[in-house]
């Protein structure tokens, strides 16, 4: 059974979309202005499609790895559920801005993954075609973001690779409204998501969900 729901992944993406605007919004905007020969809406859609494809690919790979080992070892499978619960708590605290609980994850991902992938930038710039826009989005989908990599830890306890891809797709769809919004609309959405009451309310959902996962996992470990 998958205790990580697609709805929770979507909400995580929606709540974290203000963070996405900071990390990726400038890149998306600069791409739209990069060439007068490319349609700005197509550029935005293709960039975000590339980003989503990378999320789904990562979710597929991580879930396949996790499910393979989990099927061979019950204790390992339950440990993954404990890990998912812990990351739910960390995300809740991060969303509520009580502490920078995911900074270490971003730093680790930057060292292990991003510093190598970012070198591919030179093969995609300048972005003069729609194919390059899509590829650029796929590359920047691996940008070290604590929320993205937290969602990936959830895919570790997915029952299958396909469900891992669905978790990351749901997360990505949550980020889309902010990433596709422009100008005043994006600012209004960002203000709403960053309102203290909204952050506390949504962060609390993740904390309670994390506690729920930990209770289930520890109960199974004991029995």
TrEMBL record:
Keywords: Membrane, Transmembrane, Transmembrane helix
Cross-referenced Pfam families: DsbD_2
Keyword hit for Membrane: yes
InterPro entries per UniProt: UreH-like_TM_dom
Chain ranges passing through the membrane: 6-31, 52-70, 76-96, 123-143, 163-184, 196-217
Domain Urease accessory protein UreH-like transmembrane: 9-212
Domain of life of the native organism: Bacteria
Protein name per Swiss-Prot or TrEMBL: Cytochrome biogenesis protein
């Amino acid at each position: 059974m998958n205790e990580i729901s697609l709805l929770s992944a979507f909400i995580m993406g929606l709540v974290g979309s203000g963070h996405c605007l900071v990390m990726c919004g400038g890149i998306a905007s600069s791409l739209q202005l990069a060439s007068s020969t490319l349609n700005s809406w197509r550029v935005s859609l293709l960039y975000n499609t590339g980003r989503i494809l990378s999320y789904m690919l990562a979710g597929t790979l991580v879930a396949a790895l996790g499910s393979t080992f989990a099927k061979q070892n019950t204790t390992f499978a339950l440990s993954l559920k404990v890990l998912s619960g812990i990351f739910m708590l960390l995300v809740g605290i991060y969303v509520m801005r009580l502490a920078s609980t995911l900074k270490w994850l971003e730093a680790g991902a930057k060292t292990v993954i991003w510093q190598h992938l970012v070198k591919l930038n030179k093969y995609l710039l300048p972005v003069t075609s729609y194919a390059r826009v899509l590829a650029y989005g796929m590359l920047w989908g691996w940008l070290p973001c604590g929320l993205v990599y937290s969602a990936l830890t959830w895919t570790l306890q997915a029952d299958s690779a396909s469900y891992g891809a669905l978790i990351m797709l749901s997360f990505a769809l949550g980020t889309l409204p902010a990433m596709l919004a422009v100008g005043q609309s994006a600012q209004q959405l960002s203000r709403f998501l960053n309102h203290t009451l909204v952050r506390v309310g949504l962060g609390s959902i993740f904390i309670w969900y994390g506690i729920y996962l930990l209770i289930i996992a520890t109960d199974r470990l004991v029995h």
